[in-house]
Amino acid sequence: MAEYGSFSAAAKALYISQSTLSSAIKELEAELGTQLFLRSNRGIQPTPDGEDFLRYAREIVEQSRALERRYRHRRYAPTRFAVSTQRLPFAVRAFQRFMEQLSWNSYDIAIRECPTYTIISDVAAGKSDVGVVALHDQYIPALEKTFEINHVTFTELERLPTYAFLRRSHPLAKRDKVSMAELLQYPFVTYDQEADRSEYTEEVVFHQIAEKTVHVSDRCSKVALVRFTDAFSIGPDLTNSNADAFHSGMGEIVAMPVEEISDSLHVGYLLQKNVAVSAAMAVFLDYLRDDIIVLKKTL
């Protein structure tokens, strides 16, 4: 009415009769106890109270439209999927294959390489759908308690040996196997973990005995240091090594058995307890199983 200046024009725009609109305005004025519009032969115009009412009404209408837009948009929101993983190349390869087969029109997916405790927290909080971890025999009992407290479950897929990773031109690279004493003559490259949480690392805890330790926070830095220096790394897999079937032609990094290390790593995934496996999770886990099998055969 304020926009059209007359009952007849406003009623026509609203597809209702003039009498229906007039009655509705009178009821509103009676309910509010004030006159909102002045009527005259020249049309209608808002009173001071009417102007005040219109200002608030416009704000409410705009907020209502914004709310509607927000939730209408959510019906078309992208499909989301996230994985948190230790710095394990086979997990990234599985995620890459998962991504290549996606047929969703819209998606928002993520893979996060992070410390083990962060993985547990991500899965527990629902930030990630799946967590990928490699755990040591001796720490499984303690970690099972942590899983229980955080309401996550661990499913083992395979057991993998631990290898030392050296560049191909390393002084020890021609050996069939190496000893810890031989390795410890060289810098040990290890990932940062939170203090007092060595049981969470995917690496054998060399830093407890190594005299030359280099801490890194990401896999790219570790690979670069191993490729271009005499530093060594420990783990089940490292990109660009002969343990990496997808990079075996590069042969930049050699995977070698360590004489004193016989413990295997329990490789598997974490899920939130009592959460059903979605179609996306099932596809990713299938790729993860396949890549772990390929890795084990290559080693």
Range of helix content = 25-40%
Strand order of the largest sheet: 4-3-5-12-6
Number of helices: 9
Strand content: 15-25%
How many domains? The number is: 3
Could you name the ranges where pLDDT drops below 50 across 5 or more consecutive residues? Answer: 241-249
Structural features, described:
It holds the Pfam family HTH_1. One of its GO terms (molecular function) is DNA binding. Keywords: DNA-binding, Transcription, Transcription regulation. The structure is a single chain. The chain is 39% helix and 22% strand. It has 299 residues and is an alpha/beta fold. It folds into 3 domains: 7-74, Winged helix-like DNA-binding domain superfamily/Winged helix DNA-binding domain (Arc Repressor Mutant, subunit A, Orthogonal Bundle); 78-160 and 265-299, D-Maltodextrin-Binding Protein, domain 2 (3-Layer(aba) Sandwich), CATH 3.40.190; 162-263, 3-Layer(aba) Sandwich (D-Maltodextrin-Binding Protein, domain 2), CATH 3.40.190. A 5-stranded mixed β-sheet has the order 4-3-5-12-6, sandwiched between helices. The chain has a 3-stranded antiparallel β-sheet with strand order 10-7-11. A two-stranded antiparallel ribbon has the order 1-2. A hairpin with a 2-residue loop joins strand 1 (37-40) and strand 2 (43-46). The longest helix is centred in the first third of the chain and has 27 residues, at 48-74. It is rod-shaped, with a radius of gyration of 32 Å. 31% of the residues are buried. Residues 241-249 have low confidence and may be disordered.
